[in-house]
Every structure is written in C-alpha cells, then in structure tokens.
C-alpha cells in the first residue's frame, strides 16, 4: 500500500511516518511545503529508506499536486498539512485560510480527479483500486468550540462552533471534505483529535515551550488564570488511531480521538515542573514552579475541550496506550536527550539546511 501524506514533516505527520515505516506498514510519499513547522530532522534515517519519498510541494499548487498524484499513484491520502498554531492565527489569519481552506479544496479537487480515473475493475484482491481509495482528513476538536465546565465531552454529533481563526479554518476544511463526499462520492474519513504532545513538537506549543523554558531557567508564561482545560493525547497514540481509521473506518464517517486526560493548563505546567525536578533538579530556590508566571490571556480563549472517544474505541478497538503521567515523563526525557534537535530549531539552523538542500524545489 502506498500512502500520500501531506504535512508529513510536521509534528504529527512525522510521528505517523516514523510509525508506519518502522512497522513497514506502508510506502510513504510525504508532500510538504516545509514551512517553519516542517523539519526534515524529525524524520531521522528516512532519507535512505526505499519505502519513503519526499516532495517539497505546497498543497495550494495544483499543477505540482497533479504531478505528484500522476507520478506516485497513491492508494490513499492522509491530509495533515495545515497551519496549526492558534496564537499565529490570531496575529495573521490569512495564511490559515489560504492553506487550511483553499489548500484543502485544491487537494480535494486533485484527489477527486485522480480517484475518478482509477481502475474500477476488481483485481486479484477482489476489489478495484477505485473502491479501495480513501482520503483521510485529519482535524481537531477545536471545531466544536468552548465546552462549559459540566457539559458532556464532544461527540461526533456536537455542532460546530469554532472560536479562533485557526479553528474556523479547520471547521471550513471539514465541511469541504464532507461536501466532496456527499456531492462527488469521494471516499473520505475524518478524524477530530484533542491536544497532542510528545517528541519533535515545535516549541511554540505549551508542553515543549514550558519544558525548554524551564530547563533554561526562563519564565513559564501561563495565559490568564491557567484554568483552561485540554484533553491531552500522546502523538504515538494518535498515529495508531489514524492508521486504524484509515484501515477500518467507515466511508463518510467521523471519529473523535482523545486521550482521556483532561487537565487544566496549570496542572500540566505543575506536573512538568515536578517531572523536571525528578529528572534534573534545579537550584532555583523553590524549584521550577517558581518560574510559573501569569501573562495576558489569549483573545477568545476557549475554556475547555474534552473528547468522547467511545465511537473509535467501540467500533475500531483503539484506545490510548500512554497514561498522561507516563507520556509526560517520556516527553520531558526526550527533550532533555535531544539537545541537538532543540538547538537547531531554536537557532534556526534547521531552516538553513532546508534552504541549502531544497532551494530549487
Ligand atoms: P505542524 O504545524 O507541526 O505541521 C504542519 C505541517 O504542514 C508542516 O510540516 C508544514 O510544513 C506543512 N504545511 C503547512 N502549510 C503547508 C502547505 N501550504 N502545503 C504543504 N505543506 C504545508 O502541525 P501538527 O501539529 O503536526 O498538526 C497536523 C494536523 O493535525 C493539522 O491539520 C492540525 O490541524 C491537526 N491537529 C493537530 C493537533 C495538535 O495537537 N497538534 C490536534 C488535532 C489536530
Ligand atoms: O485541541 C487541538 C489543538 O491543540 C490543535 O488543533 C492545534 O493545532 C494545537 O496547536 C493545539 O491548540 P492549543 O491552542 O490548545 O495548543 P497550545 O499548545 O498553543 O496551547 C495549549 C493551552 O495552553 C491553551 O489553552 C493555551 C495555553 N498556553 C499556550 C502557550 C503556548 C499557555 O497558557 N501559555 C503558552 O505559552
């Protein structure tokens, strides 16, 4: 099986590719524009893997996408490429609409033309390439908006009410994917996932930012009162869920994916401080906690997200393998053990490497 993965050099895409290639589950064509969030150093060793190909292509570039489909002839598409950071979407929403909405429409158009041209005669496996084709759209729980403290967790039937420009752009992309299924019959599956954490996450997101700031003795900036709740999922558990949905999900159906780990931001940061204290005790007077600083809240900040994952758990037998405490320990340890990856991201050296190696693409 050959899968075209968009955004495979980002945080979740790279975890997915590392997992798929380490189990030799599928050949991969990674289509990624290498924005600031794309880092080929998150895919160590894959440059020599014959089952892995990389295409530096922007999903907004229709001709380039058509060429990629023509040349690689994928059996399935997993669409992760997106602008993903809420704070950036507040400062500059334009590129979020361009990539997440227009880019997704472009991909849908190209994938649809490709799928319509696939052979619809059964082969030795008993089904046709056209019947087997899937487009899996990877989305977020942020499309459901702000969840009151005592309300039940988001199900697949929860109405959309996005708050941030990022969330609105992802909601729009989900609607486009459903429309391409309903109108043109494109065989799609959709997943909406909660906050991921784990290795190789760009240190603008809460957990890696806090780990690296703490290790450097810098303030830990908690937005507002830190009482906002997120449901945390280890990225490797997410990658496994995505694989199960691609393999066994019902066409046209949506699956919510969560970690069963609702925590306030303050609880997360305090847990990080405790974990760091065990791994690398600090000589700061009252420990890493002394670095926690309340800063101005994010505009439009959603107070709570929580995911009801019963559908994927009951129908596909998936459940998270990591507890939050174990996952957090492993993540802290990973950042501590990979100072080179961290330093090259923080200094911008990874960008110089990209421009030297992919300047012509
Ligand atoms: P990321 O920001 O780490 O990576 C995004 C990747 O997409 C990067 O490699 C980037 O180079 C690429 N990209 C951006 N614009 C592109 C374009 N125009 N053309 C081609 N490639 C482009 O994001 P992530 O955290 O890995 O998230 C991946 C997907 O999962 C996104 O769709 C996001 O909305 C969704 N998601 C993320 C989380 C999370 O907690 N991180 C949770 C739920 C859903
Ligand atoms: O819920 C899924 C979403 O999770 C994904 O769709 C997004 O792509 C992903 O970025 C993430 O969005 P969040 O906004 O929840 O993630 P972030 O790490 O930016 O922030 C997590 C929480 O921590 C949020 O309530 C804001 C808060 N925060 C964040 C940062 C960066 C702070 O308090 N201080 C910070 O410095």
UniProtKB/TrEMBL annotation:
<dbReference type="InterPro" id="IPR005888">
    <property type="entry name" value="dTDP_Gluc_deHydtase"/>
</dbReference>
<keyword id="KW-0456">Lyase</keyword>
<protein>
    <recommendedName>
        <fullName>dTDP-glucose 4,6-dehydratase</fullName>
        <ecNumber>4.2.1.46</ecNumber>
    </recommendedName>
</protein>
<comment type="similarity">
    <text>Belongs to the NAD(P)-dependent epimerase/dehydratase family. dTDP-glucose dehydratase subfamily.</text>
</comment>
<dbReference type="InterPro" id="IPR036291">
    <property type="entry name" value="NAD(P)-bd_dom_sf"/>
</dbReference>
<dbReference type="GO" id="GO:0009225">
    <property type="term" value="P:nucleotide-sugar metabolic process"/>
</dbReference>
<feature type="domain" description="NAD(P)-binding">
    <location>
        <begin position="4"/>
        <end position="331"/>
    </location>
</feature>
<dbReference type="InterPro" id="IPR016040">
    <property type="entry name" value="NAD(P)-bd_dom"/>
</dbReference>
<dbReference type="GO" id="GO:0008460">
    <property type="term" value="F:dTDP-glucose 4,6-dehydratase activity"/>
</dbReference>
<dbReference type="Pfam" id="PF16363">
    <property type="entry name" value="GDP_Man_Dehyd"/>
</dbReference>
<keyword id="KW-0520">NAD</keyword>
